[in-house]
Here is the input.
Amino acid sequence: MTLLPNIERRSFLKAAGLGGVAALAGCAEDSTDAAASTTSAQTSDSSGAASVDVDRIAADPTDVPDPVDWSQPRTHDVTLETQELTAEIEPGVTFDYMTFEGRVPGPMVRVRRGDTVNLTLRNPESSKMPHNIDFHAVYGPGGGADATTIAPGEEATIEFKATYPGVHIYHCAVPNMDHHISAGMFGAILVEPKGGLPEVDRELYLGQHEIYTDKAAGKEGHHKFSLEAAKSEDPTYVTYNGEAYAFTESGYGRIQVEQDERIRVFMSNGGPNLSSSWHAIGNVWDKLYRDGDLVSDPARFVETTPVRPGTVTAAEIKTPVPGPIKLVDHSLTRVVRKGVLGVLDVQGEQRPDIYDPNPNGDSGGE
Ligand SMILES: [Cu+2]
Here is the structure.
């Protein structure tokens, strides 16, 4: 996969005169703000945007641990550090994220049913907030949250056995958990069944969630978390991997895949509030591991599936024809106005027996 470095992304947007999500999405209502902000100076000082700690908060969707290739129970030592980082939701729009390991979603933990996880959560001295972690793959108080609640400068260790299979979410679960999750604190733990998962050509890992801020989408400057917006469940942004339009030509670029692949996508919905109506435009969920259930027979040929907050769903697509496959939440205002769009780019030969965009052959195409 090729991803454009963030610096190219910013340069592209400045060169194109695009200041925000409204302009990118062709949204009329906020275009005044977008236009005004692009004509003002682009420095972060004058726009009110904060200086960023990292150029990129969005995890690479191809960063998935290798499949289980062992057949006896193992113990895994896993350390996760909570990191509070200022980064951009989109160019010119900064936000104070809270993360596991400085990325959204947090790293996938991948184990086999019956394995033991020795988990250390570390909260650095520089943090402002307490954090913890609730694994939905854990039998125990708070899924581990009760024993891992730590102040800045502390760490805590728990050990748990992955007794049941499935792909499950993990998230921060402190009292203000809606804020912490909206700031990025969620991920996935994949507990493979003892027989493993069917082999596929490629696996991808995405995380959808909502960001509730005190400004309109696309308004340049520093956006603060808005409790009012959260209580209304009216997010400013809905994103894959914490950034608006991250995996499109306006962001880090499309995710490059090949023709005739079988691709398994893991999609963790952190929420904190909204159910996703998950759909692949121009494709179908060929196999759907509904709600992350990896033991029942997968559903077949499902067009749109709910992925509720607090759930990781796995689904497989095939790529018989070239062109874009757009992964969306089919609550489409979130796609057009709020950022939740990721595009797979299938490279390959036309297959007119399956799809012919020009059956009369009368266009001036290449
Ligand atoms: Cu937290």
User: Anything to note?
Assistant: Residues 49 and 221 are 4 Å apart (CA to CA). The longest strand covers residues 75-90. The chain has a mean pLDDT of 89.
